[in-house]
UniProtKB/TrEMBL annotation:
PANTHER family: LARGE CYSTEINE-RICH PERIPLASMIC PROTEIN OMCB. Residues 311-421 form the DUF11 domain. This is DUF11 domain-containing protein. Keywords: Membrane, Transmembrane, Transmembrane helix. It comes from Candidatus Saccharimonas aalborgensis. The chain crosses the membrane at residues 16-37. NCBIfam families: B_ant_repeat (TIGR01451). InterPro entries: Chlamydia_OmcB, DUF11_rpt, OmcB-like_DUF11. Pfam families: DUF11.
Amino acid sequence: MVVISVHDSEEACMKLARAVIIGGIVALLSLVVLGHLEGDNALALNPSARDCDNNSIIYCGAITPDELATKYAQNKTGDLPALYSHYGISATMINAKSQKQGYVTKAGDVYYNGKVVAKKAISVGRQYNTGSWAVGIDGRTYYERYTGTNYAAGVDAIAVHIWFDANGKFVAAVMYSCGNALIATPVEVPTVACDTLTVEKISRTQYRLTGKAHATGGATIKAIHYYAFDSVSKPVVGVAGPDGQSTSTVTMTIPNPGTYKLQAIALTSMGNTSSDGCTKSVVVDQEPCPIPGKENLPKNSPQCVEDKPGVSITKMVNNAEHQTVLVGSIYEYEISVKNTGNVPLKDVVVTDTAPAGVAFISASSGEITGGTWRNTLPTLAVGESLSFTIAAKIAAYKAGVIKNIACVETPTVPGGNPDDCDDATVETVRMIDVCDLRSHTIVRINEKDFNGDHMTKDVSQCEDLKVCRLSDKTVVTIKKSQFDAQLYSKTLNDCVPKPQPTPPVTPPTVELPHTGIIDTFGSSLGLGSLVGASHYYVASRRSVR
């Protein structure tokens, strides 16, 4: 049964231990104290277990880190800093109060958390005892001895303050009960570590990973596993290295673009471990554009498309494809050019030559030279459209449809020259004067609108004409087209009243008796004379006409 005491290995310390440890009580106390020593809580130890004699480096010892720091600062014996420093215990270590609580056995083994952390312990005291040897420190003489040399019967372990270095290696100790310093040969501490991770890019998505780890003090490396973590620390790819190897190389494929943390994790007999040296960051690029000349773009880029330059032109006249225009009037051609491709266009040239009979007057931009309008656009962005207008007129009537063609050409678009053309057509109007027989007025119309049913090109038919209206013998003014010989006479004299002849005075006749042939003949002669006179009157009127 291992019993832990809070007494020094010095013979003076053992006196108190003999009084405390008896039979079965000793065994029970051992278990209790061992449990307390595995933590940092020195207050759990029995504060009465102190050695208050001349062999103690600190009179009555120091049970807790606070007590040790206080008594060290008080330095009543005047030699604590020099003595402790000789055994590797500095003021900084004591004042940090970060020491651990353990115990040293009679066999010279120093324990912490149930594990041997050092062997062959040697302690120092102020008095000589059997088995001791003198050591000079800063002008004073002290006595070292192997722990357990003077342990009292039944005492197997004494509580100690323990300091470790950054790697968990034993440095030194101080006994609770008497403050005596203690040194020992450190036991190699089992350690494991993941040392390095190197990353070599093989391709866009493939990487060669090499990890190195090491183990000491009996620990072992089982394998190295490699992981890729996404932006939210989720593992997305894992590759296991060969078992039993502390250095291994694997190939990892990360299919999706993004930023990833690569980490090598060493699986060891002491658990899994990694480090900053075993952690790297990589960026998996987007899949490149497969189109030659655009490999620098990601595949999902809007620009990762085959270049298809294109341009179109549309032409209108007065907002229509065809218009009828008046001779001498000004009208407008509208020209629109658009980049219909997926690349910007350069040096876009738009031209329009006036057809025969058409004269260009002005343009919204560009130049008109020798009847040809020309406009050069340095660039035309994808989807961009520009519009222009040309004012034109036709000086003289020209029969038929007049077609006007505008074209566009850019070296960006391979192939024919020009790249596109469009036309708009006009036709002129022949205006004529006609006499509208319905209104008897002269009107100007498009010749194509002539209707012989109620029109005549003889405009004189709508001129005024003075005639004699026969119905009432009145001179009136009518249109020539209204003349009707049955109703009117162009001879105005026909409306001049004629003098009435004075009828001859017939002397009274003596009525004779109506008898015989003479009477009959006379009556006939009178009637004939009247008829003859009427005939000659009518004939004379016609000759006047």
